[in-house]
Amino acid sequence: MKGIYSALLVSFNEDGSLNENGLRQIVRHNIDVCGIDGLYVGGSTGENFMLPTEMKKRIFSIVADENKGQVNLIAQVGSLNIEESVELAKYATDLGYNALSAVTPFYYKFTFDEIKHYYNTIINSVDNKMIIYSIPFLTGVNMSVDQFGELFENEKIIGVKFTAGDFYLLERLRKAYPDKLIFSGFDEMMLPAVVLGVDGAIGSTFNVNGKKSKELFYLAKEGKIAEALNLQHEVNDFITDVLDNGLYQTLKGLLSLQGVDAGYCKRPMKSQTEEMKKGTEKIYRKYFA
Ligand code: MN9
């Protein structure tokens, strides 16, 4: 399960319906062009929290079908509707997903006991493994080293996608749970995360920049820190430009310029404006032409 996973982008039509053919093209691009080790499906980058259950299922199914067993697949099934999470967990498990993931339940200030109940309920309903999706800057949910440990007591909870800049916490988790999988979630902080011993990385920008990010990851893993840092600087010039122009809109725009039908975003998220399009073209010329 280790390695570089794209947090998969999803293509939508202008009316918010799923662009199935576009989604297939994004999967192919990730595998054939970016050469990633796996796909993380239904995460933030997949605009998942704005989608109805049936569409989430359709996405899991299309990705599995297009992947044809080529790379590892992780299905993010977390939701504030726990019955939906269980339903999605069963569905993705039946499709052969290698692992599940679930965002920490957000919006309400859930107690740790409630969070623990959520994870155990989802993963104990299926024959599969769970990777906690921790992203405190969007969820507001912060867990301590001991609380992660309490979740990890369930052997089916095998790891965490750590999307945070708290490297002290990351180091403490690495030391405390050497057998659990830790995935770095911020692409722009991959190098320090690898130095602290993460097993992989899951990120949105890999849909476009997967090759270089993968090179960075394995250079850092081999201890070639100076070379890896040069690449991180390069990668971060790109990420900074993308973030300034609008993250998902720009990534989709860059794919479209490469002939991948990455489509529109799902409302309430707006799609590329004319100004963003110009910005995207500039980024394309700077890094890809
Ligand atoms: O899955 C992604 N997180 C979000 C991880 O999109 C919220 C990251 O890959 C970031 O998009 C990326 C840019 O900040 O590091």
From TrEMBL:
One of its GO terms (biological process) is carbohydrate metabolic process. Its main location: cytoplasm. Pyruvate binds at T45, I202. GO terms for cellular component: cytosol. It is found in: Cytoplasm. Coiled coil: none annotated. It comes from the Bacteria. GO terms for molecular function: N-acetylneuraminate lyase activity. HAMAP family: N_acetylneuram_lyase. Belongs to the DapA family. NanA subfamily. Catalyzes the reversible aldol cleavage of N-acetylneuraminic acid (sialic acid; Neu5Ac) to form pyruvate and N-acetylmannosamine (ManNAc) via a Schiff base intermediate. This is N-acetylneuraminate lyase. It comes from Clostridium thermobutyricum. The gene is nanA.
